[in-house]
């Protein structure tokens, strides 16, 4: 069980965050090559559908950590200080987020030769829309922006979650009811579009305008996967309130082996679960996270100093990578005057992308992010409550 001492530390989560960030880096390296028409490595074509599930893992992890912190605060103080919570999130998220937005909208358009699409024209034609969208965390409205600073869309999703989640937890006592209501609403919104399509097909009812609106809602709810974060929150609830019957089952080595095996098989077989795809995988991810964070007998260990450090800078790894993979591609092709084809050029491209992303993330963390993170401690709900990567 989780031991409380001077600092409540949830092990392995920094390591998990690093591995998730690394997969995203590797995935998007090949994704860039695919969009350029350059031959991709065989493994990419196989694992391409898993990119969105890696993002889902991050959403579940965020839901687990944030819910854990909020429930712990409410347990100890009998309330949740909303102002302090929002200040902590602002100090954690906003400095790097708005720095990336500044680079994407005001710097990169002047270096259009680095980009494989008409990036500067896209920004120029839709600048006001993009600026408002980024400043107020609205849904991404211009797809072309995704290729260069597209990682920021997930930050908008998490900010939306952070906005309403503490309010709900503060004012509710029946947490499980709240979790399932949120999951249910998310499922209805996301799958409502397909219901309309089926009704048109089998009942010959013309829902053209309703279908058009439902498609927009579907596109939004497909990004705003609040249900996956709520499922992560269920895992935190089980830990905070020490639900022994469920936890003892989750902690069993047989359960761990089965969950890891099933997850690996489903991922390798690229199994899509109709209607509850994200939610199904989120349950598996939550069981894994609960074991990694709170089970001293976890069969998987990721609590190593080097992984913990890279996990701490994973926010930078995630946000800087879209820029660094494009710059690295141009740099490698310019230095060696050859396209990214063959194992030698691919090895160089991977090396430059990964190393440059790590180096810029280290610099960003120590120079820009850490001063704000130190300020964040002043607004901590309890001095003896510390969760890495929160």
Oligomer: single chain
Instruction: Please indicate the percent range of residues in DSSP E strands (runs of 2 or more).
Output: under 5%
Helix segment count? 17
Give me the strand/helix succession: HHHHHHHHHHHHHHHHH
Shape: globular
Give the total of beta strands: 0
Rg, rounded, reads 22 Å
> Major β-sheet, in short?
none
Helix content percent band: over 70%
The whole-number mean of residue pLDDT values reads 86
Name the poorly predicted regions. Answer: 1-7
First and last CA, distance: 20 Å
Coarse structural class:
mainly alpha
Main features:
mainly alpha
Summed up:
With 390 residues, the chain is mostly helical. It has helices spanning 13-36, 42-47, 51-77, 82-107, 119-125, 127-135, 146-149, 152-171, 175-203, 208-223, 226-240, 244-251, 253-268, 277-294, 305-312, 314-336, 342-376.
Could you please describe the fold and organization of this structure?
This protein has 390 residues and is mainly alpha-helical. It has helices spanning 13-36, 42-47, 51-77, 82-107, 119-125, 127-135, 146-149, 152-171, 175-203, 208-223, 226-240, 244-251, 253-268, 277-294, 305-312, 314-336, 342-376. The protein starts with 12 loop residues before the first helix and ends in a 14-residue tail after the last helix.
